[in-house]
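Dear colleague,

Thank you for sharing your sequence with our group. We've completed the structure prediction you requested, and as agreed, I am returning the results in plain text so they can be pasted directly into your records. Please verify that the sequence below matches your submission; if there's any discrepancy, let me know and we will rerun it promptly.
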Amino acid sequence: MKAAIASTFRGASAPLSWYYAIAVAVPILNGAPLDRPFLEHVAFVLVVPPVVVTLAGLFRGLRR
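Please find the predicted structure tokens below.
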């Protein structure tokens, strides 16, 4: 099961890196205000994708 999750994270690492760069780094570099709505957006962006990748890895492991 751990191997399936790790493999899924390895496969998703490049797309996740680009997603984080576009969704978090670019707005910060463009001077986005660090107010509550933006920080909520950052929290959502940082938390939800790893949860989805973990669930995908679990389902992948269960299918085997």
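Summary note from our side: Residues 2-63 form one domain.

Kind regards,
the structure core
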